[in-house]
Amino acid sequence: MARQVRAEVTRASVLMAAADVFVRLGYANAGLNEIIEQSGVTKGALYFHFSSKEDLARGVIDEGQVRLTAGVTSVSDGPTPALEALVALSYVAIEAASADPIVAAMLRLQHEIGDYQGTDGNVVTAWQQAFERLVGRAVDEGDIRTEEDVAPETLATFLLGSLLGTHVVATATNAFDELPRRMERVWYFILPGLVEPSKLVYFRQFASRRLLR
Amino acid sequence: MARQVRAEVTRASVLMAAADVFVRLGYANAGLNEIIEQSGVTKGALYFHFSSKEDLARGVIDEGQVRLTAGVTSVSDGPTPALEALVALSYVAIEAASADPIVAAMLRLQHEIGDYQGTDGNVVTAWQQAFERLVGRAVDEGDIRTEEDVAPETLATFLLGSLLGTHVVATATNAFDELPRRMERVWYFILPGLVEPSKLVYFRQFASRRLLR
């Protein structure tokens, strides 16, 4: 292998091993030695790429964010109406986390590392901005009702909080398996406050069908 | 002072200093030396009460939980209708966290310590159970509509997720000052899915007035 390719393979091995250890043990209890052992690289190779456990955790957050964003972008930037995209991406995050340890570790480390930053900027702020764009578009498309004093920003903050909080409660109580069903219920309870009564059945069914996919 | 009283004062000083440092720096960056310095106790005195940073963090979580529960119990066990108690206690948690660093640290450390445990059991599970009782009572009182397949447990999980997530997003983006207003919006958006249309105006106003108190 060319040197650069080898370096990339090493970095990827370290990130994958780190994600697995972080998901299992959490940030506080994860040890660099265990990560080194599991990745099969040397201590020197790990330190070539990451200077500390914190640096490694931020690297996992960055990579998890890239992977999740890839799935999210394919849903939210296509021709799908924005409210359907919002519903769909709440499931995409769950599916990505259960299929990919790096996404799962990202979601966990965000909280544990304390400042919600990868190596570059705030992860939750990035989500907030993505939600604002989608809510703004759903309002323009006539699917989300605008009332007197409700800015898309306010609604985006509420939605992000409800979805993120559903992850947090499931994480805290070890109920990952129930997450898709709980997400469907979040939409069930929230939709009456977001859409015209005439559209409620459609969007509730949309959320239920997405669950069964 | 009698020895026991002195020990309690020492323990309280350490907890308060620890809470302040944890809130400012987060679990990962908080140092025992800084906590010792700020508390004004000796290293030996600290280690008499707490064996490690982790032990200290769990002590802060325990104490924060006790203090928050005191405020919550006075709201939720009185004659107040349960849905009003649920609205009120979402503000009580914000007010307690802004008035008392130990409660603020508890809310932060819950996530950062990774397993959501104090020294004794899961903090989020305890909240979940309290929410279930209140939701069950609000259903009995006729304020929360029951639909076909919605168990109080499901609704409690949803509510807890939405309220906790609102804290998480505010913590992550440094927007504590906006929390009361955001909490009022959470109820504004959620209530249409919980109550009869004829009661919507009353409960939305209840949430708004509680904000202004």
Automatic annotation (TrEMBL), chains A, B:
Residues 8-68 form the HTH tetR-type domain. SUPFAM superfamilies: Homeodomain-like (SSF46689), Tetracyclin repressor-like, C-terminal domain (SSF48498). Keywords: DNA-binding, Transcription, Transcription regulation. GO terms for molecular function: DNA-binding transcription factor activity; transcription cis-regulatory region binding. Residues 31-50 bind DNA. It comes from the Bacteria. NCBIfam families: ScbR_bind_reg. This is TetR family transcriptional regulator. It comes from Rhodococcus oxybenzonivorans.
